[in-house]
Write a structure and sequence with these properties.
With 268 residues, the chain is α/β, with parallel strands linked by helices. The protein has helices spanning 50-58, 97-107, 112-125, 141-154, 171-187, 199-205, 226-232, 239-243, 246-262, and strands at residues 4-14, 23-34, 39-43, 65-70, 73-74, 82-85, 159-163, 191-195, 208-213, 218-224. The strands form 2 sheets. Strands 6-7-8-3-9-10 form a 6-stranded mixed β-sheet, with helices on both faces. Strands 2-1-4-5 form a 4-stranded antiparallel β-sheet, with helices on one face. The longest helix is centred in the last third of the chain and has 17 residues, at 171-187.
Length: 268
């Protein structure tokens, strides 16, 4: 099982050295339940605690109160059941694509044959054929992020935690990567917690979208996308076709209105 549960989670940071003094409540009483193999996107204004939530699921931060569990067990630190993909590609520049993808498997003690099978599988799944012996600096940003995602999938994690993984990409590459992630999610489904600033991206990728507000960070709304996706067969359409559907624009507009309210009515 790979269910992720945030139970009434609060996260407080100490403002030591700050003139205002006291503590800063980044997240206040957040509860989110992500079912096994469900793709959940989180959107919200800057400073609402999106990344802090992801870091707590990854075991990189601990809640001040409440509980975060994965597969029914409290998260006490990083673990092989969870892989994290950040906005910056975080590849080892001195290792080839093959070596980057195989890194986690090598650390786990997998045989050379098992590592090579996994590398070949994800080179194919991520459209990276012909790049196995290249170094990161020889690849485009989009290709580097494909390698980062392949490396995460190669260790066969139950949970994939993605913190704005396409935020540093140009618009065309970002669209291509969104389509690749949808295809990969169908081929090799995982429980996914996906942080993004893009409403369009959240609607296109996620089964559910969590909208957060701030001061402190809290859940404002949870919107189901999967029912509409299944009913209208989004999986069989291109991303351009999906984004022109009335159902897509309706969902996007509703989420954007909620987000604007959290931004104080500003449009930026």
């Amino acid at each position: 099982m790979s269910r992720i549960v945030f139970e009434n989670v609060t996260k407080t940071f100490n403002r030591a050295g700050n003139r205002a003094g006291g503590d800063f409540v980044a997240i206040g009483g957040v509860s989110i339940d992500i079912a096994e193999k469900q793709f959940v996107a989180v959107i919200g204004p800057s400073g609402c605690g999106k990344t802090t939530l992801l870091r707590m699921a990854a075991g990189l931060e601990a809640p001040s109160s409440g509980r975060v569990t994965v597969a029914g067990r409290p998260v006490a630190g990083p673990g092989p059941d969870r892989a994290v993909v950040f906005q910056q590609f975080a590849l080892f520049p001195w290792k080839t694509v093959r070596e980057n993808i195989a890194f986690g498997l090598k650390c786990r003690g997998e045989s050379a044959a098992a590592r090579e099978r996994a590398v070949q599988r994800y080179l194919t799944l991520m459209g990276l054929e012909g790049t196995a012996d290249s170094y990161p600096h020889q690849l485009s940003g989009g290709m580097q992020q494909r390698v980062a995602i392949a490396r995460s999938y190669a260790i066969d994690p139950a949970v994939l935690l993605m913190d704005e993984p396409f935020g540093a990409l140009d618009a065309q590459t970002r669209t291509m990567m969104q389509e690749e992630l949808v295809r990969l999610a169908r081929t090799s489904p995982r429980t996914v917690l996906f942080i993004t600033h893009s409403v369009d991206e959240a609607v296109y990728l996620a089964d559910r979208v969590v909208v957060m507000g701030r001061n402190p960070g809290r859940v404002v709304a949870v919107v189901d996308i999967d029912a509409v996706r299944q009913r209208e067969g989004w999986a069989a359409r291109s991303i351009d076709d999906v984004m022109e559907l009335p159902s897509f624009t309706h969902l996007r507009s509703g989420l954007w209105r909620m987000l604007r309210e959290q931004l104080g009515g500003r449009s930026e």
